[in-house]
Amino acid sequence: MAIAKAERLMNLALCLMNTRRPVSKRELRASIEAYHEIGSDEAFNRMFERDKDDLRELGMVIETVESLDGEIGYLARRDRNRLPEIALDAEEAAALSLAAKVWQQARFAEAASGALQKLRAAGVPFHDEGDDDEGGRGPSGHSALEPRIPTPEPAFEPLMVATRERRPVAFDYRKANAVRPEPRQVEPWALECWRGHWYLAGWDRDRTAVRVFRLSRITGRVRTRGGAFTTEVPDHVDVRATVASWAGEGATATARIRLRRDSGYPLRARAVETLPVDADWDELEIPYGHGLDAWLVEFGPDVVVLGPDELRADVVDRLRAVAKG
After folding, report:
1. Distance (Å, rounded) from C-alpha 12 to C-alpha 143?
2. Could you tell me where the DSSP H helices lie in 131-229?
3. Rounded mean pLDDT of 295-323?
4. Which of 49-53, 130-134, 240-244, 262-266 is most confident?
5. Is the pTM of this model over 0.70?
6. Cα 220 to Cα 55, 223, 297, distances in angstroms
7. 224: how many CB neighbours lie within 10 A of its CB?
8. pLDDT at 267
9. Measured in Å, how far apart are the chain's first and last C-alpha atoms?
10. Dihedral sign from CA coordinates of 241, 242, 245, 247
11. Helices 90-102 and 108-121 sit at what angle, rounded to 10 degrees?
12. In angstroms, what CA-CA distances link 325 with 26, 75, 177, 301, 318?
């Protein structure tokens, strides 16, 4: 149905742009095949008005002209529907080039590459890899380093599409302390990469609360669901801040753990204090916030929680749940 509508809008746009005189609704109905199937004049008029409004929302300038005999005609002049000449300075061109190179493993890579080729054909200069000088910087002075955001998770693309189109989704999700995944129904709000992992923020329908999901823990296929969102999407969704709060970032309290030597480097990087205990163990003081228990469980037998007592109890409960399967 969406493809049929897109084809109908394209045909209407072509008819309006490839005529030198205003065209009436009667002529458009006879020229566009999709309108032939409309039975009544009333249904055709409703569809035509919707199509005309959709084209205008997309930016097309459609003129309404009344002839001497009172008939209304429509016309889209090419000079008023032509994009202005593209002019980018060196910084803007570098930003576009960098954005296109970021998406290396998603299906957007082909579209981004095609867009750059069209801009190059239009005369917009882009810095190429082969133009680097010996100092590792191109003639424009921009770094030749090409940061890439990996998107290896199969869930990334369907969630990206669902987020853009505001479609609810369902998937199976395995929590850090669980052996088996659980079904989730989510209204996806935003995706963000943080510390090498992709996260989805959205409204969990089953838990009636905002939740953040790590894509690497989504198992199986992401399935889209019909219907509209049941909650309003916030104007700004800070996925990184939400993930950070669940990981204990910015916490005012601290916890003490014992960590096996030469292990748990992410914990060591966060440590406020590190003291050697013996040849096998170190004692660390780390920020304590919501979600720290789930994170500590991931390190298995390499971590022993010394305090506070509630954190130790939470970690023990999670480990017991895993052991029971």
Report:
1. 46
2. 156-165
3. 87
4. 49-53
5. no
6. 39, 9, 24
7. 14
8. 87
9. 45
10. negative
11. 150
12. 69, 68, 10, 17, 11
